[in-house]
Amino acid sequence: MSDHNQVKLTTMDYSKDRPAADNPVKIQDLTLRDGHQSLFATRGRTEDMIPVAEKMDEVGFWAVETWGGATFDTMHRFLNEDPWERLRTLKRYMTKTPFSMLLRAQNLVGYRNYADDLARAFVERTSENGLDIFRTFDALNDYRNFETVVAAIKECGKHFQGCICYSMTEPRLGGEVYNIDYYVKKAKDLEAMGADSICLKDMAGLIAPYDAYEIVKALKATVKPPIHLHSHFTSGMSPMSHLKAIEAGVDIIDTCMSPYAYRTSHAAVEPLVMTLLGTNRDTGLDIRQLAEINEILEKKVMPKYKYLLDDSKVSIIDINVLLHQTPGGMLSNLVNQLKEMDALHKIDEVYKELPRVRKELGQVPLVTPTSQIVGIQTVNNVLFDDKDERYKMITGQVKDLCYGLYGKTAIPIDPEVQKKALKDYPRGEEPITCRPAEVLEPELEQAKKDTEGLAQDLDDVILYGIYPITGKRFLNWKYGKEDPPAEVKARTLEEIKREDEMVKLAKLGHLVKKVEKKGPPKTDALRTFDVFVDDEYFEVGVEEPGGSPVVSYVQQMPVQPPVSAPSPVAPAAAPSPSKPAEPAPSKPKPAPAKPEPAPVVADVEGTPLKAPMPGMIVKYSKQVGDAVSKGDTVVILEAMKMENALPAPADGTVQAINYSSGDSVAKDDVLCVIG
Ligand code: CO
User: What is the Å distance from ligand 1's center to 523 Cα?
Assistant: First the structure.
């Protein structure tokens, strides 16, 4: 590939005035979506995007990804932000660069297939609110799930980018399912559907450089639309894969601004710009302009979020991806789920069970939502199965997958697992083979009815339609019908500085003076810090009523921290002492301050149904007084975004129900009592 080195560096500097390349690589920036989704659980707030928005608009990116993926969910659930408003706001600051979003085809920005009417309305409203490029993917690469949204994208006159989710069953490209013919065939399908560009979507960073070369070469030889490579850094291979894909003629590459790059995110843009400088694939971007943006992100934005970064490891690459092919997001979900169940020591069993479950469930690619579906089911199998019975607790989503509601899997689902999953399945025990949305009743009108008097426009209705429980809660916050809880409020740079300052002082031993007056009662906003001074260990509680932090208590712990003392405890089980006791990013936050459920348990005799895992109550399927048989579904518990039908532990009558829809519960909370 010597023709890439025709360098004319003598008269050239970094500026945009340098001679244009024959075939410049186009760059899409992902900082404002996949960047913060990958590195800090999508918690980036719109107010922290505005300081760089205008400058980013000047760079000359092919597009900026600003929306979709997990943003829609996280914003209304955790940030008390209207996702539609972000689109409109950013569009005011970025008028030149096209906006792209990640659209989960018929899953929209949620975790199940929605009905055609809701899907169409979503695309139309998204387009109307300012979106230009719809990067569309289906977790199963079943393009029947594209039909409705693609028709709507085309009608709106927008760019349809079709994705092929990159997946493997072997250490490298090849094998019976995901081989080169598979990718070529999928690209041809997308071209036939009218794709304006085609994206090879490598969400786990699995694509090896020479495989990227081979696939891009093959795609460029067979289809006309531009080829776009999206490859996460996770395994460490992506910068090499980018370069090989560029040599093979790839048209567009995804990168992030450097503070949002690497780890499970994407390679940074700057090294790529320098690599290609002066070649016939020169991006034409001005590296000094990029540096200015990075300065703002580093100094004004990242300090607010760095507490969310996973600093538990020194290494920035994830060997597990190379070993187990587990995408970063999926892995952190698995780890969190196991932690919440006090079962982190079973992670190796989970790794062993995962390929088996994946194969039984049709060798699906591992991407949202299939990565969660396979991941959570694997954890359930490891935690609840015994040697006599597998798949003891099957999630609702696995049942849907077995029924065909997500589409066609790469290979058929194991018939035994399918049969077990579909026993008493409400839609029927015989799986469907048609386009999944064909069996779905329209749902937009119902969503309108449900939100009458609350929703002010179609955008509100759609938000509710996709997320009924958290969407309704958000609309109540938005229209002042309920107070949002403290944890959804933004933290200011001032607050962060004060916290950092206090931790620093505490570390120096200057924070031990007793609080003179009696402190206010502790609330949910309390954050605890573990502070170590030599061999002493302090637990410090920090809380910010009205913005000014108050030290609630400083308690000297009688025990030494396990990590600073020689300890027989295995390293994997030792808690991380340096991290504030902040809830894990993907863990659902506690429900807003609601009246505690009446402690009816004490007065009621019977068998308790305890939450097998922390989660949120979706609904009770039985009422107090209903007769139930052992095994009947009593309550649906959402855990890690999967719905779990919890069975009655005994025959009898429902004596007490302790929570209601939307409540968060901890492991072992008594959900109801059967007597
Ligand atoms: Co991605």
Answer: 37
